[in-house]
Design goal:
Its main location: cytoplasm. The protein is of the alpha+beta class. It has a domain of 269 residues: Rossmann fold (3-Layer(aba) Sandwich), CATH 3.40.50. It contains 10 helices and 35 strands.
């Protein structure tokens, strides 16, 4: 299943393509959307479809539609979860039951202590991009009689998700996120307190993992003997290097957190595991993860031999089926392609086969930069760390003279720009701009030490890293125009963009920022991840934390608003009216500060969009306005 943006319709369209692979093993190659699942024996396909405000469960086989249940009309629960955070759709071994997660049924009004109902009682949710998710429940549908039941026995104060059948299909394994004393934002946050639980159909529940940890992505081996899952620390960085743990009778760590990888070595696990990642013999696990400026596919063998499987720029593993790996491959000048290859035996070479060549490639020139901070900018607690960047330049036909440079900064801050296809970067390069995508210290793929080095150093270390990367690129490539520099970023990338035009007012000519953090002190009470507001400036967080003048002063000191009076570059702000992560009033605060000084500023307000500004019409609007802003001021 593929998706493509249709700008005329203002929506994403989906279409399917099918390949038949002639091999020694019969392989059914199906890449499924998040809420679609194929049964293990008969190849029945379960699909969740929405029509007329109702959610339908459809069961298909080779002869067509075999069964359809209107889950909404059955009224056993609220909306079924289709997100990757909680959602699942899992067949039982007998293929007579399906497991999924949905919102609990609840009255539209709440009961007060004296028994009276009150519609105005506040209901917590799980924050940005999960605003409709409050109290998930594990549900089972019996396909023989069409009955739907909500499993009982989940401990109070737990939100279950990512459920799967345990061997024998008489119990389920799920991740439970603790939501006491109150919920914190969960999207993009792998540091939320959670545990692995096992619940039988009679309502008996036991905890399988340790306390005060975060867990995710349980994956059961084909023979049912071994369960793997990701595990990390609570609080601290909201995304970090995770361990890969194994439970087979007792619990052990298969891959530990990598603090500081050596060149060419495995750099740690930073991303969710594919839904199907086991080899057929239940001895190996395959997954993708960041490694410096790349995204690579690695395998874990029973003797812990870890090796990269290919040298193409970036590879995202989509699925493993009967040892056939399906990966999405791309580079900054090549849109994604599908490749397949069988997982080799020990010592054997791996051969990839491309299923479909990209519809077009581009003659952009791109290179990866390794950047070392100057001695005065070394982090004394985490000394010796370096970082990276990816430079993409337009085709020679568009770059007869010196090329304007757009410095593109990722958000997070604990994420990365791998050397893969990026639509924004490609669009800018096609229009004649060079683009420098910077992976400053704190980005994923460089080890846990790099991530921890940014704690308490935001607004200084990350700002200096970006500036060092830009100076390095200008020194190494004389075709770049040092007098035509722009800076672009969203969220923490917007935070850094505004810092750069404030701290280096004569260096950058123009800025475009999406939902930027402008004043961390005023953001404290409005963000769904209030814990990060403390952690980022070096304070420990606890749920009962009360803001102090010391903490608020530190947040203000590290914020771009303190440099607003020095900003000379024209600033374009793009804000989502429904942003729960970074309130749009953050951008408004900078807008007013610049307007009061007659500084050039333009603000775009997208009332129905959130933090990611991901609606199709919003994305097109943001890109076009950013390009026009760059052309106008460069």
């Amino acid at each position: 299943d593929w998706s493509q943006t249709n700008l005329v319709r203002g929506s994403r369209v989906f279409y399917s393509q099918q390949w038949t692979l002639i091999t020694d093993i019969c392989v059914s190659l199906l890449l499924l959307r998040s809420l679609s699942a194929v049964s293990p024996i008969r190849g029945l396909r379960a699909v969740i479809r929405e029509t007329g405000g109702h959610q339908l469960l459809e069961i298909w086989d080779c002869h067509g539609l075999r069964k359809c249940l209107n889950l909404t009309a059955l009224n056993k629960h609220g909306r079924l979860y289709e997100d990757a955070q909680f959602g699942c759709l899992s067949w039982s071994e007998c293929e007579n039951k399906l497991l999924y997660v949905a919102e609990k049924s609840r009255n539209t009004s709440k009961e007060t202590d004296d028994g009276e109902s009150d519609r105005s009682v506040y209901c917590e949710d799980w924050g940005e991009a999960l605003t409709s998710k409050s109290s998930p429940a594990i549900c089972v549908v019996n396909l023989q009689n069409g009955a739907v039941s909500v499993l009982q026995g989940v401990p109070p104060g737990i939100s279950p998700g990512q459920a799967l059948w345990a061997p024998g299909s008489q119990s389920v394994v799920f991740v439970g996120w603790y939501h006491e004393p109150f919920r914190l934002g969960l999207k993009f946050c792998s540091n939320r307190r959670s545990a692995l639980f096992k619940l039988d159909l009679e309502g008996h529940c036991e905890c399988l993992s340790g306390d005060n940890l975060s867990v995710s992505c349980p994956r059961l081996s084909p023979d049912g003997s071994t369960l793997i899952y990701l595990q990390g620390q609570v609080f601290g960085p909201h995304n970090q290097c995770l361990s890969l743990d194994l439970k087979s009778g007792k619990t052990s760590t298969l891959l530990d957190v990598v603090n500081r990888p050596q060149p060419g070595e495995f750099a740690g696990v930073y991303e969710a595991l594919p839904s199907r990642c086991w080899s057929a013999d239940s001895q190996r696990v395959v997954f993708s993860s960041a490694r410096r400026n790349w995204k690579v596919t690695s395998k874990v063998v029973c003797d812990l031999d870890i090796r990269g499987l290919d040298t193409v720029p970036s590879m995202l593993l989509l699925t493993v089926q009967r040892d056939l790996m399906v990966v999405c491959c791309s580079s900054p000048n090549t849109p994604p392609t599908l490749r397949v290859g069988f997982l080799p035996s020990a010592g054997e070479a791996l051969t990839w086969q491309t299923l479909q060549e990209p519809v077009m490639t581009f003659d952009f020139h791109w290179t990866v930069l390794d950047v070392t901070p100057p001695p005065g900018q070394d982090n004394t607690q985490y000394s010796g760390l370096d970082f990276g960047a990816v430079l993409v330049k337009p085709s020679p036909a568009l770059s007869e003279g010196r090329i304007p440079l757009v410095v593109f900064i990722h958000g997070g801050p604990h994420s990365q720009f791998p050397a893969e296809w990026n639509c924004t970067t490609a669009g800018l390069a096609k229009l004649g701009f060079a683009v420098l995508m910077v992976n400053y210290r704190g980005s994923t793929g460089f080890g846990q030490d790099s991530i921890l080095s940014l704690i308490g150093q935001i607004g200084s270390q990350d700002v200096k890293d970006v500036q060092t990367a830009v100076l390095t690129a200008l020194q190494n490539d004389l075709t770049l125009d040092p007098k035509r520099l722009a800076v672009l970023g969203g969220s923490h990338g917007g935070f850094l963009s505004c810092h750069l035009v404030g701290q280096y007012p004569d260096f950058y000519r123009v800025c475009a920022a999406r939902n930027p953090v402008i004043n961390a002190a005023t953001l404290l009470g409005t963000s769904d991840i209030v814990d990060w507001r403390y952690t980022s400036v070096g304070f420990q967080y606890s749920y009962d934390q009360i803001p102090t003048s010391e903490a608020l002063a530190a947040m203000l000191e590290k914020s771009p608003i303190t440099h607003a009076a020095q900003i000379k570059a024209p600033v374009l702000l793009m804000l989502g009216g429904k942003d729960r992560r970074v309130s749009p009033h953050q951008g408004l605060e900078l807008y007013k500060a610049l307007k009061s000084r007659a500084s050039p500023v333009r603000l775009l307000w997208f009332a129905e969009d959130g933090h990611s500004l991901s609606r199709v019409d919003t994305q097109a609007n943001c890109f076009l306005n950013t390009v026009l802003w760059l052309f106008q001021h460069l």
